[in-house]
Amino acid sequence: MSGARDPLARRRFLGLGLGAVALAACSGPEVARQPVATPPPPPLQTPAVTQPSTPPATPAGGPANEIVRGSSGRPEVALTFHGAGDIGITRQVLAALAQHGAHVTVLAVGTWLAATPDAARMIRDGGHELGNHTWSHPDLAKYQPEPMYVEIQRCRDKIAELTGSPGAFFRQSQGQHATKQELAEAGRAGYARVLSYDIDSLDWRDPGPAAIRHAVTAATAGSVVSMHLGHPGTVTALPGILTDLADRGLTAVTATTLMS
Hints:
This protein is α/β, with parallel strands linked by helices and 260 residues long. It is built from eleven helices and eight strands. The chain folds into two domains: 1-43, no CATH class; 65-259, TIM Barrel, CATH 3.20.20.
């Protein structure tokens, strides 16, 4: 930068009028004293600084919201499976779902994931989603707040260890609907939504494939259906259930898809 101050240069700058004022405002007084014959260099470009992404907000600890069924009006239902039992039966369930192009949500028990960690990979590889169904599947509503929270937290941490995520939902064990305390502890553990259900397939009673299939015929658009891995009758009933849904124009989707 020359910094020349001869009278001619000053007269030339005085002739620039508002243009000189604007240039001085952007480039500083030293640039304004340059001769007109030598255009000022472009302003120095400050390298862009990449700011760290804003970390997710810390959960406020408020209670989770209970979801019982979807309300989009789309012809979809969510088949949700309580994740436990023989891993061989799980493979058969996943194979039947794949044959019908169906996707489901598996609410996994933490001890089951700890004993069969490949289950989490198998479920996700099939395009299904995982959720939290407590660590050991107790009668959770009878627990005091702190041990109730630990049941949710331990399963959450196991799912995160295996998948990198705590899972999309929490579901209470041994209850169709969440209690006020269960909603509070689920929220404290970081879950915004507790996934209950409006249709019980009753497969946990092992009533036989025909009875399981019949129970699911009560599902309508938006329904969340409770089913279980680990029961042979469920495997036998599942192809018929999926056919029945398709015949009624209903698609089996994950709970996240149903609620979107």
